[in-house]
From TrEMBL:
Residues 345-365 have a biased composition (Basic and acidic residues). It comes from the Eukaryota. GO terms for cellular component: cytoplasm; nucleus. Its main location: cytoplasm. The keyword Nucleus applies. It is found in: Cytoplasm; Nucleus. Residues 380-389 have a biased composition (Low complexity). It comes from Geodia barretti (Barrett's horny sponge). Keywords: Cytoplasm, Nucleus. Residues 339-389 are annotated as: Disordered. May play a role in microtubule-mediated transport or vesicle function. This is Huntingtin. The keyword Nucleus applies. It holds the Pfam family Htt_N-HEAT.
Amino acid sequence: MSTGEGPADPGLVSSPQASGVKVLETLKKHVFEHSDAPSKTLSSREVCSSFSDLTAAVFSSSQRANSGVVVSGAIELLVHACSNQDRAIRLAGQENLHKLVKKLQSTHLSKLLQDLFHELKKNGSARSLSVALEVFAALFPRTRPSRRQALSQSLLPVLLRLLARDEEGLHESLQDGLSHILPTLTPFLSTTNNQLLMSAVLDRLPASPASFRRMAASTLHSLCVHSKSPQSLTSWLVGRMINIGCQETATEQTCQGILLTLQNMAGDQDIKTLNLMKQVYGLVLSCMMYRDGNTTVAAMETMNSLLLASSPALSRWLMTAQPSHALASKFWMITNEGEVGGDGQDSRQEKQDSSSDAHSLREDINDAYFGSDQEPSPPATAESSPVTSDAGSAVVQMGYFAVRDGPTQPLSSLVLYLTESVLVGKRVSALSVGLACLTSCADLAPSLLPSLSPYLPFTVHPDPKLKSRSAKLLAVLLRALLRESRGEASSPLVSEAAAALHSVLTDSSPVVLKAVCESLRICLPSLAASSQPKLAVELVEPLLAAASSSSYWLAKVELLRTLACLPLTALALSLPSLPHSLLSLCVFPLLGDTDHRLALCLSLPSDPETCLLSQSQNCSC
């Protein structure tokens, strides 16, 4: 639209009492006919002003007789205006549409939903659909329960058409809109319709834009969570994803989309069955062997989520010795599509039911994990190296993994891969996620990290993110070691980890200091209650010095929160001067600080028992 000034159209009267139908018809003539070319009769400013006149006319009490016609026409016009070439007209159309919906949603909810649904059915431009979907998604959960069944059945084919569109902006709107629509829509869909919708979403996983994969991952997760039978649908979905991911034609984008979906589903109770978790673990482990860096990082992030949310059964399996050949090659799908975790059939029955080449490839690793009378050999790889001798046991290098004769713990093999393959690289994102995975492994089984030498270089790394990750690894390892030894801190590994944490505390970077404080809150209570509380005291002393020297307020707040979590009464037995030092070096100077956030952190915590001021005063007394 032209932005120049021009004479006002005589058909447009700037008055709330103007005929809504007349304003609507005049605007339709200009907006619909000239949406792709500048208008010859109206300026952009006049069209935007006319939108306000139309909205005011809809609200006018004199239009009640024509309210249905005016509301439908206004919504159609404003949604269409959102795809106009003129940015001012697009913004004005969107603003007036939201104003119209906000005013009428309490009295004309059904009418608004019906008109917005018709706009979605038109499958018009991406901009118009994005705006209509945003408004429709906000109103859909308020639908009366008696109308949800019919509306859900009508909405399904519309969503399938939207999912087939290729506009990136539309898929970003779909991600937000479906997060509001699916909790209300999914319970009214049959299992067949749910699987149909999931299949349409799965088709978007190979797409190159990351927004498509994010939309697909969040949508699949929401469909599983809110369905009538979440466990069976989750099993079906995981089976489909494993089947897709194990195909030779699977691209890096497909694997990344599958991994993102599994990462979203990692904390769900419906994926907690051991059979299902083992298959997910195997798929993620195979994706970690990709040469593509983005896929490897996504696989490690998913693995970290699985380890953090692992069930007791999965934790026991990860720390139970398995046949070594199960860790030597790719993991493959073990059951037919749709049967994962469902009927509990083992892989021997699967081999009798299928003789295809693709399925025979998948059987290589299945028998090792789920039981078989035979001992299949792992497929040969181009990266295989000759057998070498190590302490009397044969070691074969298969791809990324070093496979030893005899049973091997899956978690031990994972730690070996992370330590010897990931941490020797130079990509900071991969190193950071690798340290996070090792932190989760250390929390489950600290004995798998017998030496700190591979991880100590990261405590002096110039990148603050890696320093922070290494500090958390040391803190979690300390807590896990003390938990297993029931507070006995005589192990050299405990002293070495505490000394490494002490060295990180000397870093002057506020970012590192904040992260180290968060890590210390993990291990300091355990250290203070251990047989060597002096190790905790040695870590507290640099905290006191940092609290008085740091200039960043957020770092000071983290320092105070860390000091507040300490059992100062117990530590005072090892260092009698600690309460006095705490008051003189930390509490009193910061109480007079000009930043009120520090004073609030000192004196008014959410938990009175962790109030640093009251603790230090009690210890001094």
